[in-house]
Write a structure and sequence with these properties.
12 helices, seven-stranded mixed sheet, Quinone Oxidoreductase, Chain A, domain 1, single chain, Rossmann fold, alpha/beta, about 350 residues, 2 domains
């Protein structure tokens, strides 16, 4: 099969590799219908994460079940499924508490930017749709494998409540989905921090009531001005850099929580400020499978359309160009079709 591999910073290739096979009774093989490039994939692409040359890459997919192991009873070949990027058995104590991303038998989608994927906890991980979805629904369904669920997790972790003021730091696909999540959860004001007009437009469609284009100290001052010096009731940190985290804590009101889902790189927490103002920090890797039933209902019911974050669609053969486009901010999020 064809699968995307990374060989070094900026070096993305599409190569022929053996197709995955069932290796355990809990496995399933899924034929990829659509995949995409994640913002977190840009960390190794930019040389920020260590890699082994030739590693497969990609973790967001939807597809059709091709084969299942003997322990997989709820799914059969031919069914369309959403594959959470983190696989879970949905039975361990952590899964029972809703933290499927910390499952005792956790696994991850590997080589999702390809033609086939092995899911190693299929029974507890996969979520099937009611028949084959309409093609126009696939981008939104694909977003549920990671990016929409991650934005939702940021809002949950930050404690977004009806009538509250939420600020979203970061205007990538996760940040935009965070805007959508905060709006859906009933925030009265959703302030998106974004300097880029195409992203501002999506943020507005997703429910942002105000846009702050400034960054750093100027952006922080603008947020405090908009909130009459109080700060935000909930802050969604969707970047992962020290600057973004610093901004999040400077605009968070006393007693609030910063929900962080950006993969942290070089972050130093302002513990004294957190202590003095009783500002909490919660979040981390999204427990996608725990959120899937609710999010799938919202998508199928037409209440949310997170697929709007995909502003570019490319054939898998052009995956390297997709990485360049996202790295250069010429695309928000690239959908790949095998």
């Amino acid at each position: 099969m064809r699968v995307t591999t990374i060989h070094g910073p900026g070096d993305i290739r599409l190569e022929d590799r053996p197709a995955p096979e069932i290796t355990a009774p809990t496995d399933a093989i899924v034929k990829v219908v659509a995949s995409c490039i994640c913002g977190s994939d840009l960390w190794p692409y930019r040389g920020e994460n260590e890699i082994t040359a030739g590693d497969p890459i990609g973790h967001e997919i939807v597809g059709v079940v091709e084969e299942v192991g003997s322990d997989v009873k709820s799914f059969k070949p031919g069914e369309f499924v959403i594959v959470p990027f983190c696989h879970s058995d949905n039975n361990c104590p952590h899964c029972a508490a809703g933290m499927t991303s910390a499952c005792n038998n956790i696994g991850f989608t590997d080589g999702g930017q390809g033609e086939y994927v092995r899911v190693n906890q299929a029974e507890g991980s996969l979520m099937k749709t009611d028949g084959m979805p309409d093609p126009e629904l696939i981008p939104s369904l694909l977003s549920l494998s990671d990016v929409m669920a991650t934005g939702w997790h940021a809002a949950v972790a930050a404690g977004v409540r009806p009538g509250s003021t939420a600020v979203v730091v970061g205007d990538g696909a996760v940040g935009l989905c965070g805007v959508l999540a905060a709006s859906q959860m009933g925030a009265e004001r959703v302030i998106a921090m974004s300097r880029h007009e195409p992203r501002q437009q999506i943020a507005t469609k997703f429910g942002a009531t105000e846009i702050v284009a400034e960054r750093g100290e100027e952006g922080e001052a603008r947020i405090l001005e908009l909130t009459r010096g109080i700060g935000a009731d909930a802050v969604l940190e969707c970047v992962g850099t020290n600057g973004a985290m610093g901004t999040a804590f400077k605009i968070a009101r006393p007693g609030s929580t910063v929900g962080f889902v950006g993969v942290p790189h070089g972050v130093k927490l302002p513990v004294r400020r957190m202590f003095g103002n009783n500002i909490g920090l919660a979040g981390g890797m999204a427990p996608v499978r725990a959120y899937l039933p609710e999010l799938l209902d919202l998508v199928v019911g037409g209440k949310i359309n997170p697929g709007l974050v995909f502003d570019t669609t490319l054939p898998l053969a052009e995956v390297a160009e997709g990485y360049k486009m996202m790295d250069e901010r010429r695309a928000i999020k690239v959908l790949l079709e095998p």
